[in-house]
Write a structure and sequence with these properties.
single chain; alpha/beta; Spore Coat Polysaccharide Biosynthesis Protein SpsA, Chain A; seven-stranded mixed β-sheet; 8 helices
């Protein structure tokens, strides 16, 4: 059971969930088992299966998000957390709970730490990261890096990220994307708002249950183009730096 904090900091693990009964209980339990984790929050995005009940049984606090969409669920999860550091992950078992320690090693020095699933040595057999998704994510991430003067980026769609709470709350009012291309908006806003950002590799495992986006080549292809369009458009937006802390 968690709750011992990490070097005096409270740690929140948060995740969006929509019909994730296949993996939610195992995922929540994995993070709850880490002694540094003080709370696990699941944003239930109108699930019609047992996601809510299974998450609660595993020890998560479940908060509802009525607006349908991955981005809305992520926003709800992030803004519901009370920790000093807020760790955003998927609820489908694709990320390994011990990878949290990698993020905590960087978190005191940065305002935002982004995960990347495209490091070849960290991609597990059977995971949904074929050549198209891997190179596509790398290419779009490089576009974001160059157009927005970001740190070295190799993945634009990785949910796995950690934020300082004050930095996150400073940019949260600027969130507008409720759909599946929320991740690059989150990254752009963090970078352009003046947050100290860095990217680190994470293990990427086979998911529990069926993906509704990247499991389909057609949906993944159009999502990629939607991300590209937003990244280019944001190049011409004025985004003022935030102050916090």
């Amino acid at each position: 059971m968690g709750g011992r904090m990490y070097k005096g900091f409270k740690i929140s693990v948060v995740m969006p969930a929509y019909n994730e009964a296949a993996g939610i209980e195992q995922t929540v339990s994995a993070y709850r088992s880490l002694p540094e984790v003080d709370e696990v929050i699941v944003a239930d995005n109108n699930s019609s299966d047992d996601t809510k009940a299974l998450a609660q049984r595993a020890g998560a606090v479940v908060v509802p998000e009525a607006r349908q969409g991955y981005g809305y669920a992520c926003q709800k999860a992030l803004t519901s957390a009370t920790g000093d550091f807020i760790f955003l992950v998927e609820s489908d078992g694709t990320f390994r709970a011990p990878d949290l320690y990698k993020f905590l090693a960087y978190a005191p020095e940065f305002d935002a730490v982004f995960g990347t699933r495209t490091s070849k040595s960290c991609i597990w057999k059977g995971s949904n990261m074929g050549l198209f998704l891997r190179y596509g994510n790398c290419a779009v991430a490089k576009l974001l890096e160059y157009l927005h003067n970001g740190p070295c980026l190799t993945d634009v769609g990785c949910t796995c990220k950690i934020f300082r709470r004050d930095a996150l709350h400073a940019i949260a009012p600027r969130f507008t994307v409720g759909a599946s291309h929320f991740s690059p908006q989150l990254m752009i806003l963090a970078i352009r708002s003046g947050l100290r950002c860095v990217e680190i590799p994470v293990h990427y495992q086979p998911r529990l249950g069926q993906s509704r986006i990247t499991g389909s080549f057609r949906k993944a292809f159009f999502l990629g183009w939607k991300m590209i369009g937003m990244i280019v458009l944001y190049r011409f937006k004025t985004i003022h730096r935030v102050t916090f802390g």
